[in-house]
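Q: What does the assembly look like in three dimensions?
Context provided by user:
Components: two
Sequences:
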Amino acid sequence: MVFYLVGLGLGDAKDITVKGLEIVKSADRVYLEAYTSILTVGKEALERFYGRSVILADRDTVEQGSDEILENAAQEDVVFLVVGDPFGATTHSDLVLRAKEKNIPWKVVHNASIMNAVGCCGLQLYNFGETVSIVFWTDSWRPDSFCEKINSNLKRGLHTLCLLDIKMKEQTVENMMRGRKIYEPPRFMTVSTACQQLLEVTKNNPESEFSSDTLCVGLSRVGSEDQRIAAATLRELSEYEDMGKPLHSLIVVGKVHPLEQEYLEQFFLNEKSCR
Amino acid sequence: MVFYLVGLGLGDAKDITVKGLEIVKSADRVYLEAYTSILTVGKEALERFYGRSVILADRDTVEQGSDEILENAAQEDVVFLVVGDPFGATTHSDLVLRAKEKNIPWKVVHNASIMNAVGCCGLQLYNFGETVSIVFWTDSWRPDSFCEKINSNLKRGLHTLCLLDIKMKEQTVENMMRGRKIYEPPRFMTVSTACQQLLEVTKNNPESEFSSDTLCVGLSRVGSEDQRIAAATLRELSEYEDMGKPLHSLIVVGKVHPLEQEYLEQFFLNEKSCR
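A: Here is the predicted structure of the complete assembly.
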């Protein structure tokens, strides 16, 4: 019948659209993608709200087992729920391509994602440059390609949205080598960790366009009742531990326009250092 | 009580979120912002779906008459409906600031906007640079600042989303000078008009990073049942008149990654020229 990709938005169960909810209620099978992002509520809360069961789909199911998801989709309506908007991650376009290969009709129900909801801090979306991802560093792996992109945005006066790492169902190297399916608890990068990594990068780079004094904005749980926004210097945010539960995002601020400034002021942690 | 900014998303009445609909149904007054964007349905369809009346707010009401919108909002729940996401236009952050001045509590309900739904063509959102606006040229006014921004994105291999001009309730110069409140019919820039203006700009600019052969993507009515996506060269799209009703958007394509390519192919108007 139809393969539906339905965006859940960013907050809780009620952030699904009316169109999306109707599709979920009448579908034969409903999957929930649970590894590229999370809502402030879990699968059980969604099931209660929908009045039906939902199947959790982890990375393995989606990337290796898409046959399971699309199985029988020619006869049944299958829904794939995605936190935010369905096209936020490459793996979802890939699912559509595999549905097309099988001649299964597909439809998308859009919703808010961090890529547009980030406007809630008052910085205008058309003043943002390329978005970057910041991943957890390890002792031996410290990728910093985001740095060149932030610099390039700052040279043009543009803000940079930094998406912060999420680790769901990660295995230790030892467990992976021994083929043991034992997973570490989920980890979500905080604003302060991201800022610490950015500080490290600037220290060793005399050509960095940003420094410990650069204005940044930390955001957590955007779109939920208890979302939090804090504007402060990079150093201040690297030491700030009150952003609360995941998900966190960070903005490195470029040239601030007057209306942006006026709006942003309500989120200043420290009037003096932010000006 | 509370001043709510509620996003309507991009398609029709059912693209509002469940949370948004509950707020609309129980509010005292509901305004619809109707000059920065449009849905595929009008005010009457929304009223039927909500089962209540909605007040149309044009630019004058919002920018000069915000007192009317916020009047009595300390005692009543007032909703301001915005097509797409509430933070898509500067004028909406301004409304929040004015609510804050009056000590009126406010809340936002996010939704999809063209800024994230544009991912539906398969180009990844994190490969986009700065977004630009393309306005209707007149005989004497031909702004082309978008050109420098597109070039700058292309130099970095990034795609550019071009938002196309909307003219709602415009007056002719004569009517404006005579103080006659007579308005022209709404006008919406098409993909082909936008491409024609881009072609004009490249002709006179030897340093342009794009040419008549640059791959572009035209999109119309994104998020609605009859959305249309067409990928072709800038010249081909400048002559292509089948995008249908508004709203239209355009992407100037940068470096295409393999998965993007595979997805985009389904929208090619002409296999040969797109490769």
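Follow-up: Chain B touches chain A through 56 residues (CB under 8 Å).
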